[in-house]
Amino acid sequence: MSEEEPVAPPAPEEPAAPPASDEDAAVDREMARKTRRSFLVGGAAALAGAGAWAWLDTRRPDDGVQWPLRLALRANEQTWRDYSSENRLARAYAPDDVESPRENGDLGLEDDPDPDWKLTVDGIAGATEPLSLTLADVQALPKVEMITELKCIEGWSRILKWGGVRFRDFVAKYAPGQTDANSYVGLETPEREYYVGLDMASALHPQTLLCYEMNGEPLPSEHGAPLRLVIPVKYGIKNLKRIGRIAFSNARPPDYWAERGYDYYAGF
Amino acid sequence: MRRGGRICYHNFPHATIESRNVKRLESKHPAAIRWFHWINFPLLAIMIWSGLWIYWANDVYRVGIGSFTVFHFFPDWFYKAFHLGYRLAEGMAWHFAFAWLFTINGVAYVTYTIVSGEWRYLVPNRHSLREAIQVTLYDLHLTKTHPPRRKFNGAQQFAYTGIILMGAGSLVTGLAIWKSVQFGWLTWLLGGYRTARVEHFLLTLGYVAFFVVHIAQVMRAGWNNFRSMVTGYEIVSDESAQ
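Output (structure tokens, whole complex):
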């Protein structure tokens, strides 16, 4: 656009200015030209941004969330799995910090635990039959106690004392060889109402426990008796209560909340 | 009166300092800063919006004493009016995707201001505090002493540097919540997981407060000023030129 071209009158706040010289008028023309150009570029950019947002918002869901956002969650997961150190521990608290538990979610816990409860362990390489273990089998492993903060994905947390056995000790005893960092472990409630999947590195973290005690007492029914998972490096959604089955796998096991729009990794 | 900022006469061959015209164009905001500013606007909006979807799931913050609540964050009508409820999963997905873009844009902005030297206009100096008080009094109509006309006055320097520090604070507190084991030392430094969440929330309230004042001041300053954040140029009148 040339400067000689007739242009719009000066901007509205300028009319009180002294009689414009030719030079003043030329300044106004130049400003009007710049304004037109910048607002056109800005308007196009704003439209592009709004278009990108509308596109993103209307994408086909992949496990409950727009697929590009699901891709972003997976990219985040890969980044954290690549650069996380498995040696970092969740903060341990003092006995005075322990709080009372909060009940949240009763999927698979509607009834009292089956007195004949057994833990099924599946997917062990080389095994033809799944293992069937009693609570005593699990309790035969070295007992570990820890006071950590259980963080719910909703945003609240509770500092609780846990008693149980390290998952890594459990694996060493009952499923030796199932330690490939690229493999997974799936856990389910006895009737499979609730199920979670864990990457092996998180499952083998030293603070990942199979717990049978909470705050010094046997695990209550509503908190997952007789045996539950406590994994302080993950959100509460991964801390499955009342484990009925543990299955090792090279494929990603299904995960209840990841199918409903949440991040599969859900790790700190 | 000369203002800060580069003065670009070359764009306009007829306007020279010796000429008798009273108006001239003055380059005010570099293109990079304008882009960073306007890109940040929707990114921060998405972060706040998705943050509200997340916050809803545990909306425990309030202003009050004991059991007496003055204001609860947030009242039910607020969630209903903006359909903020039952969107935790969606909120987390948006928040942790756009956090990267928000971070990249913010880091790029800070890097640019350092490399270009623009930081000199933005960072408060030893005169800024006195000037900021003067500006505040003037804006509240408590004094008639007009603050000096420069690219950014003392109050603006505090505001525009403060908002960047707040952005850094949001990143740091957000990281402390999101990755509280990998960045456990950071979470600890910030007072723990729960405290970090409070801090993250307070910073968001700070953005909203900033936005309200910012919009009011931009409206007061008028079209010429607003236009300069879009075009980069401002029309200035030289009192001495006639």
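The mean pLDDT of chain A is 92.
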